Amino acid sequence: MRIRKQEIGTCNMVGKRVEDKRKDLGMKQKDLLAQLQVRGVDLNSSGLSKLEGQLRKVSDFELVALSQVLNVSVLWLLGLEC
Prior knowledge:
Low-confidence stretches: none
CATH topology: 434 Repressor (Amino-terminal Domain)
Distance between the termini: 27 Å
Shape: globular
CATH superfamily: lambda repressor-like DNA-binding domains
């Protein structure tokens, strides 16, 4: 497993939860990217890394697709649900 080289950013609130849930599911980044593409979200590996590192903003379309792929609610991704 690679160690994050950059500090965690402040551009989104969902990145850490996306990363944690993806890892809990045993899903690699490339698997998540493929599932997002099926849902019409065209994101590359660099974009996903920045999203998870909270270095890039998340669009509403991406937020909905992430919740579907990870089988969690949008509210959970936003930290408003346990």
